[in-house]
Amino acid sequence: EIKIYFLTNLKVEGSDTRVTMVDTNQFTIPNIDNYFKEEKCDVNRQLFQTSAYRLFYLEKFLKKYNIENVIHFDNDVMLYSNLQKYKDIFAQFDFLITSHFKEEYVFGFSYIKSHKSLTTINQEVARLGNLSTKKLKALIHHDTPHEMRLLSYINKKSEKGIPTFISDVLKIIKSSSSLY
Question: Which of 151, 158, 150 is nearest to 35 (CA)?
């Protein structure tokens, strides 16, 4: 059975009964208000902070509701295939994320085995998110160290690395005769 959850801090009226609304205000997450604090454009600051906070909310949500094997995607992603046929491939990983560029990972579409899959990543995002903007830019080697670049940095420092759909899963899908 497929369940759809929508995590938000807003009150949504008249929502689809097939979608379970989850109020993110119930979760206590790390404070990274320092992250992009010096950004002059309010829209950019809000976007970058919210994108980083998403990681914490996902971890807390999955833990509280004891949910595993999750496909997460942004509201601008459309699915044209039943993902059930890939569940055995996804299950080989703890966490998968979409590669945007070589130096950026984007949550447009991701697989998360359990809340534990995000714990180490989130600890590092919380640490990085509390650095001064100057230190963070120097560490990430970019003037805009948004969460996509933070994830790339974390990947480079990780022993196992963060698998991506492009580099890891597509190789498996292409080589798997059972899917054709």
Answer: 150
- Nearest residue to 69 (alpha-carbon basis) of 107, 112, 98, 118: 112
Q: Which residue type does 89 have?
A: I
What mean pLDDT is predicted for residues 147-159?
A: 86
Number of other residues whose CB lies within 10 A of the CB of residue 135: 12
Residue 88: its H or E element: helix 87-90
Q: Which long-range contacts (CB under 8 A, 24 or more apart) does 5-12 make?
A: 5/61, 5/67, 7/57, 7/58, 7/61
Tokens 């059975």 correspond to 1
- The percent of residues in the chain predicted with pLDDT above 70, rounded, is 89
> Within 10 A of 13 (CB to CB), how many other CB atoms are there?
5
Longest dimension (CA), the chain: 52
Helix 116-129 with 147-157: angle, nearest 10 deg: 110
Give me the numbers of helices (H) and strands (E) for the chain, helices first please.
Answer: 6, 5
Task: Give backbone dihedrals phi and psi of 164, rounded to 5 degrees, phi first.
Answer: -120, 155
Kindly state the average pLDDT of the residues 151-176.
Answer: 66
